[in-house]
Specification:
The chain is mainly β. The chain is 4% helix and 37% strand. It is built from three helices and 34 strands. The longest helix has 8 residues. The radius of gyration is 22 Å and the shape is globular.
């Protein structure tokens, strides 16, 4: 039986959270339930760390174990667990409505993205504070369009540190993204100066092009076995409702969302957007769109935006690198993280058998019937080939019928030094769903599973 936690709002504060005298910190006790029940994988447990946040998006741990969260429209906040395990303290690190989603931490450097820039702050992890003025690392990221989240990812190669920045499209199906000089739907890399506070900002279009034709590169992660050469990117496919010749039944189950593999040893390639996309269900409408029934899941097909860019064009890898893995259409993957077991054993850590496996946050569909996503999936990487059949949910809303509604909507992922998986979940700002679903979730094995795995 799930209780419903309904905070009473007093000004900007919530009863159920204790507020410090300086109003910089609040405390939430453990035990707040999910408003809409969730199903967790056998042998695992999940609970809410903190609720009533402002659109939590990207998350990352700092050097002392604080969980930093981009609360879009509010700022950067830090979460610290009470020593007695009774709850978590939330501390405001930076109050600013400009941050979007990207966040990375490198010791005393805190990198964040806005709609048009990547910034860096001098950050004190022990005090959970920053110096007042940031430095602009990269200027000129396309600040307009449908998706301006701009995911960030640090990469270290020897003594060199690079910052990867992702950009999204101007429109849902954006013809300008064909041209890398547009700066749209692509990933670029920037060598970071030793002292960014005494350096000229770099321009986005001058960065090293890593990949383009990726509609919305929402989550980036380097392969744990070949981090200098292989980048994985999760991408949510375009909405093709208004594409000529495709029925409503077909687009209800197509196109697939994608996991892209980017070979950093090769010149930047295109992954097909806006012309090409991936088939999820060939039989979504066997009468209205019967021409797809002779294809298989994962096949590349054209949206026929231009007459010379048909299916043959899309099936030529010189024009379109196909995904390494496909996800159920409209799942909306927003982050990916690989699991590395902690150096020190922890009773809460994921089992060793999950080493180097990927975990993907599925934000959830907006208008699909029935809804899909609304959870976090486990993608095993132990075998030679990735397979859609091997994907399983770690956590998912039990009854998807009312979603989006009062459902968790996973966005950012981060593994702690304790081996637990932390998940941010925002509501749908478009229709103003209850803020109870703006929260942070922890997923960990139960003691029973851990003991069995340890044996």
């Amino acid at each position: 039986m799930f209780a419903i936690y309904r905070p009473i709002i007093l000004g900007a504060l919530f009863l159920g959270c204790l507020v410090s005298a300086d109003n910089r910190s609040t405390f939430q006790s453990s035990g707040v339930p999910f408003e809409n029940p969730v199903t967790v994988a056998s042998g695992f447990d999940a609970h809410i760390l903190f609720s009533n946040l402002t659109t939590p998006r990207g998350i990352a741990f700092d050097s002392v174990g604080n969980l930093l969260v981009v609360e879009r429209g509010f700022g950067i906040t830090a979460f610290t667990e009470a020593r007695n395990g009774s709850g978590w303290e939330r501390t405001v690190v930076i109050a600013s409505p400009n941050f979007t989603q990207g966040i990375q931490v490198d010791d005393n450097r805190l990198y964040v993205s806005t709609a048009g820039q990547a910034l860096v702050y001098n950050y004190n992890a022990a005090a959970k504070t920053v110096e007042e003025n940031p430095a602009i690392v990269v200027n000129g990221i396309p600040p307009d369009g449908d998706l301006t989240t701009h995911t960030l990812q640090l990469q270290r190669i020897g003594t060199t540190t690079k910052l990867l920045i992702a950009s999204g499209p101007f429109t849902n199906i954006d013809p300008t993204a064909r041209d890398p000089s547009s700066g749209r739907s692509q990933i670029r890399s920037f060598i970071l100066p030793r002292n960014p506070f005494d350096s000229t900002p770099q321009n986005f279009i001058n960065g090293d092009l890593i990949a383009f034709g990726i509609r919305n590169p929402a989550g980036l992660a380097f392969s744990p076995t070949s981090p200098s050469t292989t980048l994985y990117v999760v991408e949510n496919g375009a909405s093709i409702d208004n594409t000529t010749g495709l029925t409503a039944a077909f687009v209800n189950d197509n196109p697939a969302d994608e996991l892209e593999l980017v070979d950093l040893q090769q010149p930047a390639a295109t992954y097909g957007f806006p012309d090409c996309t991936t088939l999820w269900n060939p039989f979504a409408d066997p009468v209205g769109d019967e021409n797809f029934t002779n294809l298989t899941q994962g096949a590349q097909f054209s949206l026929l935006l231009e007459p010379d860019k048909g299916d043959a064009f899309c099936q030529d890898q010189r024009n379109n690198i196909p995904p390494a893995l496909s996800f159920q259409a409209h799942s909306v993957p927003l982050d990916i993280k690989f699991y590395a077991p902690p150096e020190n054993s922890s009773q809460h850590a994921f089992p060793q058998s999950f080493k180097n496996d990927a975990f993907v946050a599925l934000h959830g569909s907006f208008s699909r019937i029935p809804p899909t996503g609304y959870g976090v999936v486990h993608v095993p990487f132990s075998g030679p080939d990735l397979s859609t059949e091997n994907i399983s949910f770690m956590i998912q809303v039990t009854d998807l019928a009312p979603c989006p509604g009062h459902c968790i909507r996973p966005v950012g992922l981060a593994f702690g030094i304790d081996g637990r998986l932390y998940v941010s979940s925002d509501g749908s700002g478009e229709v103003g769903f209850n803020s109870l679903n703006l929260n942070i979730i922890i997923i960990k094995p139960t003691s029973k599973l851990f003991v069995i795995e340890a044996v």
